[in-house]
């Protein structure tokens, strides 16, 4: 297991195995019918019913923050949820979920136990490498490391595994897309043209490898002033909506640029647990994504690329 890492990075399993928390939102509308449909579909892996990739094509658009809050929301809705931090070169999930400094542990020096936070089972390369050291790995090595993280983690029974993808459309993205049976992908972008160009490339990549695009999330859609409540389209207006229309993918939601979202991420607490308006947006996003999965898993989504 992970022979490219020193054994000292692993902690032996001590005491009883940690159990995932169950912070299900009891006030949420029942999703029994939708869950029944999703659970009836053929699982993509042992113990994992569905895998959804969260991708951007470009860094700096809030993809990891979105993945954390999406996974936390799904757990609150009652889904058995996992989160894989696949950003080999900049793993940030441990910090965002209050597990900065945590180290991986193994019951047998072969397989890894997942960590648990806010009802989500998670795994990250950040639990295995020195946070102060850069991961200077070529594409094939990084790709192999990620596949081992998925296959050699003792995942509990999961309805869905959210994978926080690294930015770009290179070796790692192609390896995961080709080696894993993926239920679909979610694209995160900001409204500005620089981000939209790369998000379009990500959509095109998933189209080429026949992975359904479940929808697009426009992050930092507008700035929300904490004092007066006015909004300002700092990064442009409705760029994500135009991109979704061009590629014929659904829009799952639009998220504001808000200081408290960043503050909660730095504090290791998902914003959806503290900010009710943000929680409502993510619940809508999650519901749309799950609804799209019931059709996308059975039938590939056709993505049409136009020249306009």
Give me the strand/helix succession.
EHEHEHEEEHEHEHEEEHEHH
CATH class (first level) name: Alpha Beta
Instruction: Tell me the span between the first and last alpha carbons.
Output: 49 Å
- The CATH superfamily bears the name P-loop containing nucleotide triphosphate hydrolases
User: Which segments are poorly predicted (pLDDT under 50) over 5 or more consecutive residues?
Assistant: 15-29, 297-308
CATH architecture, by name, is: 3-Layer(aba) Sandwich
Q: Tally of extended strands?
A: 12
Number of domains: 1
Sheet with most strands: strand arrangement: 5-6-3-7-2-8-9-12
Strand content of the residues, in percent? Answer: 15-25%
Gyration radius over CA:
19 Å
CATH fold assignment: Rossmann fold
Structural class: alpha/beta
The helicity comes to 25-40%
Report on this model:
With 308 residues, the protein is of the alpha/beta class. The chain has a single domain, classed as Rossmann fold (3-Layer(aba) Sandwich), CATH 3.40.50. The chain has helices at residues 32-40, 63-76, 93-96, 139-151, 171-179, 193-208, 239-247, 259-267, 276-296, and strands at residues 11-12, 51-55, 81-85, 105-106, 115-117, 120-124, 160-164, 184-189, 213-218, 223-224, 231-232, 251-254. It is globular.
